[in-house]
Amino acid sequence: MEEVVIVGGGIAGLAMALALKKVGVRALVLERAKWLRATGAAIGLYPNAWLALEALGVSNELASLYAPSDKVYVTDVQTRSIQEVHFAPNDGSGGPLPRVVHRKVLLKVLAKELPPDSIRFSSNITSIETQEERGSPICIVTLDDGSTIKSKVVIGCDGVNSIVARWLGLSPPAYSGRSLALGLSVYPEGHGFEHGVRHQFVDVGKRAGFITLDDKDVYWFCEVMDPHKEKRVDPEMILREVSEHLTKDFPPVYHDILRHSDRSSLTWAPLVYRYPWDVLFGKLAQSNITVAGDAMHPMTPELGQGGCSSLEDAVVLARHFGDSISKHGGLVTQDIRFAIDKYIKERRLRATTLIAASFISGWLQTNGSGRLMKFLRDIVFYKLLFTFVFRMTRYDCGKLPSASFMPSRRSESST
Predict the structure, then answer these.
(1) Which CATH number is 2-39+103-173+276-405 given?
(2) Phi and psi angles of residue 173, each rounded to the nearest 5 degrees, phi first
(3) At 133, is the pLDDT very low, low, confident or very high (cuts 50, 70, 90)?
(4) What per-residue confidence (pLDDT) applies to 379?
(5) Domain residue spans in the chain?
(6) Residue 48: what are its φ and ψ, rounded to 5°?
(7) Burial 141-168 (b: 16+ CB within 10 A, else e)
């Protein structure tokens, strides 16, 4: 019998396990891969993510490795005009600035804070069931090798194609009509670019950009309107498509970055999202089973909130579990249901808003044909709405009660 089983060992799963550990709850992470996954090369962490990482106790370690980003230069490929857009608001409010970090570094930092036996790799679940034992709901997870694991709670952090989300009855994610290619470029002798400054290039039906991670690594992306919902895996094909077709008219500096690409880091995937109303009105929990991260709220990447909101999820759910433990000296069965209900109530509207804002942001930035769309993109979005939208990322998901101040770390199976 496990206290909590977390399905998926990505950012959401590892952050959830660490957050639960902070409040005195043991979790077992089931990861289907053979090791920590690092798909995506890099990830942008915005103020809300840094506040969540601070609650998890790992923000200082990551912040010391990467430079903050306070602005982005947006170049119109057709006119060569450049806008300077600032992340920090003009109202004088403080708070952490965004940073872009290596995804694998983030995973390692989260994983090393967990007990050695917290992650079980090569564990692919095939089904979930619930049953009553002595009047209490028990979750049963079955793996593809036929073994089963009983748990008091199951949290699905298993991504956009989540088996836990399907069990809850959530609709599959929808295709946004856009695809994203990205990669990591390596300059062994140093790239010479200014740290912390983002560069973005926009054209009709596409946008691309880059930002430095450290002295040698540069993260780049290319987002394009794409009628085909197709995932590509051949790195040479991906690089050729981006450099020779999609961005052939882009500035030389972008093509130089593409030439330095680490082929093993290249990915091309369709961008999917869950319809906002499916999150707002859908069943996000049943009994003692719920979802977090992309399993709950897959969204397009224009606001950089996929991973950030996953970190928020972890802190919020663990906070409600911790509140229950602090009151009753243990995680009792009845309080598990109350904690999950409070978590869903707190996350539902927040996730819905981020999904909608991300999709609209992407639509405005990639549909740049015609005078009206350029006006909406260059004037309405970048000059008027960007700072307002960025304020959405200054969300504070709260602090975690410390397990050391709780009456007991003992978990009860019933009230």
Answers:
(1) 3.50.50.60
(2) -60, 150
(3) confident
(4) 63
(5) 2-39+103-173+276-405
(6) -60, -35
(7) bebeeeeebebbbbbbbbbbebbbbebb
